[in-house]
Amino acid sequence: MNLRQLRYVVATADHGTMTSAAQALYVAQPALSRAVRELERELGVELFARSGRGVVLTPVGERVVREARAALDAVDAIEGMSAARSDGRGAELRVATTPSLEPELTGRLLPRFAREQPAVRVRVVRSAGREEVAALLRAGRADLALTDLPVPGDLTAHPFEQREMVLVSPPALQVREPVPPAALDGMRLVLPARGGARRAEVDAVLRRAGARPVPVAESDERGAWLGWVRAGLGSLLWYRNQLEDTDGLAVRSFMPPITRLVGLVHAHRRLPPSARDFLAFAKDDGREPR
């Protein structure tokens, strides 16, 4: 028996279906179902019975969930003892991130947070990717992480932003709307510079679409991208919410949509005050129009 299994059982009881519980925890539904079945085998009891399209607790399941809630509350209280010694002033906050999201973290979120919480020392913990981010959180080497979702079920995820990648083109470009990703094959594109995190994101989208565009300009100077599009040099593939001043240009969605869910993630333990403050700040920031 482990805490992850207890959290999955409690979430299933709260949401009524394993699918809804998995979605709420941002884990794969098969992983959640497997963990619940493993706990049932270990205890030698049936915790849930099917009811229509969902599940309901058996009598013994109700007792297990009641004790599981108490156990999880006790764990949170124990982990909160160290956090209670500090009110966040002068505390250190360690935030891990992936290479592609580090510019967002250091260029937007952290400067704004520092203005609100100047006494908190923030340290960015760099990683090679999403898997290393998870390892840093599990090892206690980072308090929070900004990363792509979903993440493994032993981590807690807070969705931060749903991003849609769109095609920005000169109005004269004739293309079907919404744009099929295959239309990117052979298209003239303004692209981020080779070797960088932004280029890796775009290249991943192009690989999934099986498209080989024609690069007409390659630069990480985002301020120049739309100028090249306006000049008729080519089109741009980037996130809608990170584009400014697209007046006079055609902004088109893809079908199926190309989206990316970004979230703040932490281990299943009580957060220190500085991390809780940053989490609340980031959620508010994500709701602000940009």
From TrEMBL:
GO molecular function: DNA binding; DNA-binding transcription factor activity
Record SUPFAM superfamilies: Periplasmic binding protein-like II, Winged helix' DNA-binding domain
Superkingdom classification of source: Bacteria
Record GO cellular component, one term: protein-DNA complex
Gene3D superfamilies listed in its UniProt record: 3.40.190.290, Winged helix-like DNA-binding domain superfamily/Winged helix DNA-binding domain (1.10.10.10)
One Pfam family hit: HTH_1
HTH lysR-type domain: residues covered: 1-58
Keywords for this protein: DNA-binding, Transcription, Transcription regulation
Family to which this protein belongs: Belongs to the LysR transcriptional regulatory family.
Listed name of the protein: LysR family transcriptional regulator
Species name: Actinomadura montaniterrae
